[in-house]
Amino acid sequence: MTGVSTLDRLARLAGIEEGWWDFFGHWRVVPAETKQVFLAAMGLPAGDEAQARATLFALEARPWRRWLEPVLVVEERSAPPAIQLTLPAEFDPQPFRWRIDEELGIVHEGSFRPAELGVYEERILDGALLRRRALLLPALPPAGYHRLTVVGPDGRTASQDLIVAPSRAYRPPGLDHPPGLW
């Protein structure tokens, strides 16, 4: 792998576009030096190949180091979401608890053992086998901002903001009838 491809992968993962169409319809590629400056501004050092590789590894490993992603957004009328849960394999037979605190104060609770959940991805990181699983919630809370908390057998917790968005935004009645609203 060349330094450019490592840098390109890192830039893509950080959300930096590969290029843009200019006013005259010409495709302009973002130069490597510009990507390095943007990445540095984001706190992602990539000044040389070794730095870029280390930063890329750290960025790709980040989601594997936490049990839950920080936020999940779902549409109100969808099926209950499968919560992505990443746990060390050593926890497979142990009991876990989950809890959803709804925006209006209603609480839902349940329990599971990771071994009961299907594995859809695995990775070894820092010598530990990690398994990514899907925790299926029994129901979807109403539209609003809610908090999902998972509690492990050792008392360790992880939380995720669960945002349930309405399937469509509010539309004032005057917009649907001529002459409409200004």
Describe the fold and architecture.
The chain has 182 residues and is an alpha+beta fold. 19% of the residues lie in helices and 35% in strands. It has three helices and ten strands; from the N terminus they run αββααββββββββ. The chain has helices at 3-13, 32-41, 49-61, and strands at 19-21, 27-29, 71-75, 82-88, 96-101, 107-112, 119-125, 128-136, 144-151, 157-165. The strands form three sheets. It has a five-stranded mixed beta sheet with strand order 3-10-9-5-6, with no helix packed on it. Strands 4-8-7 form a three-stranded antiparallel beta sheet, with no helix packed on it. A hairpin with a 5-residue loop joins strand 1 (19-21) and strand 2. The longest helix has 13 residues, at 49-61. The relative contact order is 0.15. The mean pLDDT is 92.
